[in-house]
Amino acid sequence: MSNKPKVPVAVLISGRGSNMGALIAASLDSAFPAKIVSVISDKPDAKGLEHARGFGIEAVAIPRSDYDTKAAHEAAVNAVIAASGAQIIALAGYMRLLSSDFVQRYSGRMINIHPSLLPAFPGLATHSRALAAGCRVHGCTVHFVTEAMDEGPIIEQEAVRVAHDDTPETLGQRVLEAEHRIYPKALAMLARGDVRMSGDGRTRFEG
Ligand code: GRF
Asked: Is 122 close to ligand 1, i.e. is its CB under 6 Å away?
């Protein structure tokens, strides 16, 4: 068992929150170097909120519609993050584009999970696009968040073979299982200091 204090993490979600659940599950292990201290959703009905509360984790809905501007909404999100003491931000299906200010504030400390092998298929509908392109291999990526969407330096990836009879749903299900493996792994690497984003915007692996 490690004596080092766990690094506090805030998770931002918009929906189901299965990746958030994978991070929470991993963090219950005493040897895991991070703990989830706050879950924030821009959607009040996000299933992940209840799931997080079931673990005694603060879970707050901050709907965009409650604020006049994007800046005011992000300020509210920032306030909850600051109050929680979180040092790392994990985006887990958070469906809002973040402002440059927000991204800069958490530069090198904010990560995202994306359901494709980036740089292939940034954006949405990744599984149907991979099938339409005839990919034999698809997968998922954890990366640092930078201003360009889905373009930040890569921390971890897992490849998933595409079956001849895959649908977006069957393929997406196997990719999701891989997401649940690599997201805790990448978060642990960042929390331990085994990986960082360097000034030139690349991923550096330490040790
Ligand atoms: C995942 O596929 C993730 O890669 C993408 O959004 C989805 C969120 O799913 N960014 P969940 O809410 O974690 O179940």
From this structure: no
Residues 29, 185 contacting (CB under 8 angstroms): no
Helix (H) or strand (E) holding 30: none
Q: Is the pLDDT of residue 3 over 90?
A: no
Nearest CA to 155 among 121, 93, 97, 109? 109
Banded model confidence at residue 100, pLDDT cuts 50, 70, 90: very high
Tokens of 61: 């809905």
The kind and range of the H/E element at 27 are helix 18-27
Whether pLDDT at 4 is above 90: no
pLDDT digits (tens, 9 = 90+) for 117-172: 999 999 999 999 999 999 999 999 999 999 999 999 999 999 999 999 999 999 99
Domain boundaries along the sequence of the chain: 7-194
Sole residue written with tokens 């909120």 = 49
Query: For ligand 1, is residue 179 a contact (CB within 6 Å)?
Result: yes
Q: What is the distance of C-alpha 94 from the center of its chain? A: 8
| Residue partners of 148: CB distance under 8 A and separation at least 6 | none
Q: Which CATH superfamily is domain 7-194 in?
A: Formyl transferase, N-terminal domain (3.40.50.170)
146, 201 in Cβ contact below 8 A? yes
Task: Give me the active site residues, please.
Answer: 114
Q: How far is the CA of 194 from the centre of ligand 1 (A)?
A: 24
Give the type of residue at 34: A
